Amino acid sequence: MQNMVILGATGSIGASTLSVMVNNPTDFHVYGLVANASVNKMLALCITHQPDYAHMVDESAAMELKSLLPRNCITQVTTGTEALKALVTDSRTDTVMAAIVGAAGLVPTFDAVKAGKRVLLANKEALVMSGELFMRTAKASGATVLPVDSEHNAIFQCLPTTVQAQLGYCDLAASGISHILLTGSGGPFLSTDLTTLSAMTPTQACNHPNWSMGPKISVDSATMMNKGLEFIEARWLFNTQAEQLKVIIHPQSLIHSMVQYRDGSVIAQMGNPDMRTPIAHCMSYPQRIEAGVEPLDFFKVGQLSFCEPDFSRFPCLRLAMQACEQGQEATTVLNAANEVAVDAFLKGHIRFTDIADINYRCLDSVQQTRLDSIEDILQLDKQARATAESVINALN
Ligand code: NAD
Ligand code: MG
């Protein structure tokens, strides 16, 4: 029985994780649930799953949750950074699902890695911001990091077990691998007339053709910044050189990524686009459990198609690939700028196409900084957010 803590329990990945847990009640125990401020969602989760702990980052949300919990609910409500750290590093916590959205997920995810936990990593932003330090810390602490992001999970499944055991430090070429083929659907605007892109609304941007996800990652999929962040994520997980990574648009989202070998073989991982598959894979690895996902029916699949990404349609993808070349300062700044820009877009303050402009201008301002610790990274993240805010103010 694994005791699990879910960071980002009230979100889309949180819900999928709990659904897999319900399907496998003898293997997993809901030890802790963590969310930001959604009291009603957390209350419902506490009543259904009876976790030992429910942690709300927002203090007043924690107070409210405490007052609403029915008497027969065993859950202890906590708040504050120390309590969160205590929960993820608790000796009774075996596994941490890292599914807080954005930079806010970095510190608790990093704490879990430092404590040597089994970390199921959905929060790609943590690797974008701190990849080198993150993987180095995991190696030192003996933490097991397993990729939940569907593409990285697919790549992981297509790699030899010897490479799987050396995540972050593997030598792909020495294992006969020539390329990692990172696939992406192209999102809702893959064939939208380019002249109309600037008028696209948050509702249109969040209307992903294949996946149901939280608002931030949905907008990132529409700009393909998501694939850019995943490019950086892959760089750290699989220790890749830029030329070993290729991005391929595959609109049906049935192949979730591929690994190409020196001898001409290409190994792909396929399945219906449902995050419960990679989540279940990480939860039970190296075993397999019931995920509750409908099996892929090849007689209904029809066509599988592929094309090259067009950077004039998806400038954010190119920016992220450039940032990856530039290094950790650039990827941290880009991540922060993008979070601020996406938030402003979702609030209706800027146009869809402004997101790429803001990211470009912030990336242009990157300077060499020493990034030796999480504190250094958080400081740079804060500065980049301020830069992005001022770029947005200048736009309006
Ligand atoms: P979501 O918006 O649905 O949920 C976000 C969760 O994070 C919520 O529980 C929220 O309470 C919590 N949260 C937000 N701000 C917080 C803060 N400051 N402190 C603590 N908790 C906070 O997001 P999602 O779609 O579930 O995505 C979560 C992460 O997983 C993201 O990093 C995303 O890139 C990654 N991911 C998601 C999917 C997907 O299908 N949804 C796929 C791959 C990767
Ligand atoms: Mg993904």
From TrEMBL:
Catalytic activity annotation: 2-C-methyl-D-erythritol 4-phosphate + NADP(+) = 1-deoxy-D-xylulose 5-phosphate + NADPH + H(+)
Q: Where is the 1-deoxy-D-xylulose 5-phosphate reductoisomerase C-terminal domain?
A: 145-238
Residues that bind 1-deoxy-D-xylulose 5-phosphate, according to the entry?
124, 150-151, 185, 208, 221, 226-227, 230
Q: Which cofactor does it need?
A: Co(2+); Mg(2+); Mn(2+)
Keyword line: Isomerase, Isoprene biosynthesis, Magnesium, Manganese, Metal-binding, NADP, Oxidoreductase
Q: In which pathway does it act?
A: Isoprenoid biosynthesis; isopentenyl diphosphate biosynthesis via DXP pathway; isopentenyl diphosphate from 1-deoxy-D-xylulose 5-phosphate: step 1/6
Q: Which residues form the DXP reductoisomerase C-terminal domain?
A: 270-386
User: According to the UniProt entry, what is the EC number of this protein?
Assistant: 1.1.1.267
* Domain (1-deoxy-D-xylulose 5-phosphate reductoisomerase N-terminal) ranges: 4-131
> What are the recorded Gene Ontology BP terms?
isopentenyl diphosphate biosynthetic process, methylerythritol 4-phosphate pathway involved in terpenoid biosynthetic process
* Positions that bind Mn(2+): 149, 151, 230
State the function annotated in the UniProt record.
Answer: Catalyzes the NADPH-dependent rearrangement and reduction of 1-deoxy-D-xylulose-5-phosphate (DXP) to 2-C-methyl-D-erythritol 4-phosphate (MEP).
PANTHER family recorded for this chain?
1-DEOXY-D-XYLULOSE 5-PHOSPHATE REDUCTOISOMERASE, 1-DEOXY-D-XYLULOSE 5-PHOSPHATE REDUCTOISOMERASE, CHLOROPLASTIC
User: What family does this chain come from, according to its entry?
Assistant: Belongs to the DXR family.
What is the protein's name according to its record?
A: 1-deoxy-D-xylulose 5-phosphate reductoisomerase
Organism of origin is Shewanella livingstonensis
Question: What is the primary gene name for this protein?
Answer: dxr
